[in-house]
Amino acid sequence: MIRLDIAFALSIVSKFSAAPREHHMEAVKRILRYLKGSADLGITYTAEGRADRYYGYTDSDFAGGTIPEDRRSTGAFITILANGPITWRSQRQSTIAVSSTQAEYIAQFEAMKELVGMRNQLTEMMTQSDESRPLVLYADNTTAISQAHKPAVERKAKHWDIALHKQREFLDNGDILLEYIPTDQMLADALTKP
Fold first, then answer.
1. Which CATH number does the domain housing residue 67 bear?
2. Is residue 178 predicted with pLDDT exceeding 80?
3. In what order do the strands lie in the sheet with 55-61?
4. Cα–Cα dist 167/164, whole Å
5. What is the per-residue pLDDT across 16-48, written as a single tens digit (0 to 9) for each?
6. Helix (H) or strand (E) holding 55
7. Within this chain, do residues 38 and 117 fall inside the same structural domain, yes or no?
8. CA count, 13 A, side-chain hemisphere, 120
């Protein structure tokens, strides 16, 4: 069984799986108790509304990591099909972001790669698919959205430069339509904070 509602908690405790301490084991037990008490929860997929649309949400928590020594941000995304989530990720970013915009931008890039890759898999499985329609990705950081649309800016960090150019390529090719959504409607927010 896959449970979206414990993704953030699992991302936290998994960091300590190699050398867990007592309080880490208590956190795992708390997750298990939660699962036992909420066993009737599940995901419902429907054919109503935007059921034929595949789209996603992305968010990050800038420098809000649970390991204060490294201050890595948490990036997250959820992809939706048939009005229900089909993939999601909540993960500490491998690069230390120096601003909330950079943390959001890194999360946007990961979400775009997931959306395009999953669309390719769905296209192979389905006999009928509309690849000409861009995939919508909702984000709540207007500066990161705007940065994705700007002409190339020279960056000193190679990984940042690659993410910048690849995002722009996804947008310019019409693969992704990046749209703003207010934070209070951001589904991926639940994957970046406790």
1. 3.30.420.10
2. yes
3. 84-92, 74-81, 55-61, 135-139, 176-180
4. 5
5. 777 888 888 888 898 889 888 888 887 777 777
6. strand 55-61
7. no
8. 6
In the block, residue with structure tokens 């999953």: 118
Rounded Cα gap, residues 171 and 151, in angstroms:
12
Question: Residue 107 in contact with residue 93, Cβ under 8 Å?
Answer: yes
Angle at 186 between CA 162 and CA 93, to 5 degrees: 35
Q: Is the torsion defined by CA of 168, 174, 180, 185 positive or negative?
A: negative
**What is the C-alpha to C-alpha distance for residues 183 and 144, in angstroms, rounded to an integer?**
14
Backbone dihedral angles phi then psi of residue 79, each to the nearest 5 degrees? -110, 145
DSSP 110-160: HHHHHHHHHHHHHHHH-SS--TTSPEEEEES-HHHHHHHHSPP---SSHHH
- Look at residue 44 and give its three-state secondary structure: coil
User: By residue range, what is the domain housing residue 30?
Assistant: 1-42
